[in-house]
Amino acid sequence: MKCPVCRATYRATNVGGQKPAIGEESPSPDFTPTPLNCRRCGVDLTPLIHLHDQAVWHHRQAIQAFQAGDYSAAIAQNNQALALHAHQADFHALAGQLWALQGDFAQAIAAWKIAHDLNPQHLTTTTYLQHLEAIASSANHPI
Ligand SMILES: [Zn+2]
Prior knowledge:
Helices cover 57% and strands 0% of the residues. It has five helices and no strands. The protein has helices spanning 46-67, 71-84, 89-101, 105-118, 123-140. The site of zinc ion has 8 residues, from loops.
């Protein structure tokens, strides 16, 4: 997550770029990260973080609906997540899965390409993309 004002990368832990000491990586469940202001320019990042949390909540609802087989609910929830926070590879990856399940491989590939651009290390997306591009190219050239 980046500061919208100065583009500094915001991290709740790891203040000052130092690696957290052993034993400090896992805060207790009720731990609330206190520094909600940008370390560089001091802007209040609370609304941004709130928006991000909301987007993640919608994404989780989408995954639950997806696992329950309710694809239309999953799509609606994931669209909410994407509307709030469009730069999350996981959201686009799930969108791609949902498109593919509905047989819309062009949309699925488009979504996974966005996910892959946002996070080239997103392994699931890379695998899906390779499979789907193979399927799509064989569909374009029937035997
Ligand atoms: Zn800033």
